[in-house]
Write a structure and sequence with these properties.
With 93 residues, this protein is of the alpha+beta class. The protein has 3 helices and 5 strands, in the order βββααβαβ.
Length: 93
Amino acid sequence: MWINDYRKISYISLTIYYIDENWQLKEQILAASKFSDVKHIADHIKKIVLEILKDYNLISDTTMKKFIFVTNSDTNFIAAFRSLNHISCFAHK
């Protein structure tokens, strides 16, 4: 998540990393869009991330057990991802 300081618009992006059938590390940006909620609190972040995953049909009990989220050490992001069931969350500084 980042803010355009000039226009005071917030954006959020979600990138997925995976290993393909040839054991090559791949990455793909799933979404990069405006973050319409004024407050960057855990519930808003969680809602947007779940909407993105749902758009890609990546939300089910089976697939959610396979996700690991990596984020910075912002407490709102950590709280958003830890509140999802069966999710591991790693923060790096």
